[in-house]
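Re: [ENG-882] Designed sequences occasionally contain unexpected residues at chain ends

Forwarding the minimal case from QA. Structure tokens:
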């Protein structure tokens, strides 16, 4: 079957998208175009299964359901495939018969957007709470812990505040349970109590299984009862970071995921809504276009700590330094290759969605977003392996920011 979606050329896929404005509203609420966003997926699903959960960003879950085109059902399964960007998938559809058939359905033939930065920690908070990084405080792979003046690593949750202290938005799963509905999460047993789960995805009944195919069967089983089931798949992201997103290894993970999703479709009770999405896409780095802050004095000058990740940095300036001078030097150095914003500019532009006063000091004084294949690293804190990852994400290009929203009914 021919694929009916035209894939933009690489230059276009690697260009920065205009800033997403979660807060753009008209007289009836959030604009429908702004509802085609990861933050709207769980609120929309909560409405689709009859237990609508309004959030601090999406006051009207039924509007989110309509904007995303979800039918009303008694039971739904949402699958989040880590690192499966819309355009990454579109370029490899020859390997994915099930996903190809879904992508060829016109309702599924356009992407939705993830949050900024396009990275797992920020996206999981955004997805789980139906809000935005500026409210969840889950701002990137690493970020400042202001109480201790250290950088937290938010995947392992090291040097970080307790998850319940940092992330205070109710999750959509908690909301569904409070409405008398069922919410079930199916994942690895050791993710059940992980800090990331507690922060972003707390509330559902957790079903753990080490075997990926058994997790599929358990998700299909859970869907026999009315309510919402969540299933997470992480292999594609891992393979992408190790081998490159278009490597043999990545493609074979994608093939396995396609097969498991087909089995999910076959095993789920008839009438179950299946929604497949992701947290972010991936881009291949260019090793010749990597800048090491440690070896460029004009970049390290006045910078106390560096957070974020190589495609989306947060610079925390020395106390006696005007962040505008740091931003000026970085903007000069990178020119068109990166977008450099002061914190106030980034917040005013809605980059992190609405921002809680409590979260504001955790956002960098200067926010740097890499275009094309540029990566900006710091050899003082990142080892050679981390600096050499062949594929990364975090930036606001189409390749990283655009994710699938594939709708199927079993
Ligand atoms: Zn990743």
């Amino acid at each position: 079957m021919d694929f009916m979606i035209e894939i933009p050329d690489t230059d276009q896929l690697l260009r920065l998208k205009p800033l997403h404005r979660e807060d753009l509203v008209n007289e009836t609420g959030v604009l429908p175009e702004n509802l085609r966003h990861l933050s709207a997926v769980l609120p929309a699903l909560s409405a689709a299964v009859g237990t609508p959960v309004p959030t601090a960003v999406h006051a009207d879950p039924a509007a989110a359901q309509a904007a995303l085109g979800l039918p009303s059902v008694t039971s739904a399964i949402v699958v989040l495939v880590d690192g499966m960007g819309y355009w990454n998938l579109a370029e490899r559809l020859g390997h994915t018969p099930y996903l190809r058939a879904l992508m060829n359905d016109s309702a599924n033939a356009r992407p939705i957007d993830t949050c900024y930065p396009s990275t797992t920690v920020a996206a999981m908070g955004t997805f789980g709470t139906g809000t935005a990084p500026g409210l969840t405080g889950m701002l990137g792979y690493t970020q400042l812990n202001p109480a201790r003046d250290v950088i937290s690593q938010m995947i392992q949750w090291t040097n970080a505040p307790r998850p319940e202290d940092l992330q205070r938005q109710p999750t959509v799963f908690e909301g569904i349970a409070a409405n008398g509905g069922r919410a079930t999460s199916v994942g690895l047993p050791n993710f059940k109590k992980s800090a990331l789960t507690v922060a972003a995805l707390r509330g559902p009944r957790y079903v753990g299984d080490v075997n990926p195919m058994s997790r599929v069967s358990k998700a299909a089983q859970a869907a026999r009862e009315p309510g919402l089931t969540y299933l997470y798949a992480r292999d594609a992201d891992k393979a992408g970071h190790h081998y490159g997103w278009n490597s043999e290894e990545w493609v074979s993970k994608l093939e396995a995921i396609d097969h498991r999703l087909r089995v999910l479709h076959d095993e789920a009770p008839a009438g179950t809504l299946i929604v497949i999405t992701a947290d972010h896409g991936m881009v291949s780095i260019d090793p010749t276009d990597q800048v090491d802050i440690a070896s460029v004095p004009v970049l390290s000058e006045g910078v106390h700590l560096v957070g974020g990740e190589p495609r989306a940095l947060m610079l925390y300036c020395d106390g006696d330094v005007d962040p505008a001078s740091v931003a000026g030097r970085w903007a000069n150095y990178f020119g068109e290759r990166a977008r450099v914003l002061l914190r106030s500019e980034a917040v005013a532009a809605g980059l992190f969605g609405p921002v809680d006063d409590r979260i504001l000091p955790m956002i960098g004084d200067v926010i740097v977003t890499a275009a094309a294949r540029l990566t900006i690293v710091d050899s003082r804190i990142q080892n050679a392996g981390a600096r050499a990852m062949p594929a990364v994400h975090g930036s606001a290009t189409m390749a990283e920011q655009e994710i699938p929203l594939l709708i199927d009914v079993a």
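QA comment: On inspection the terminal residues look reasonable. The chain has a mean pLDDT of 94. Proposing we downgrade this to a documentation issue.
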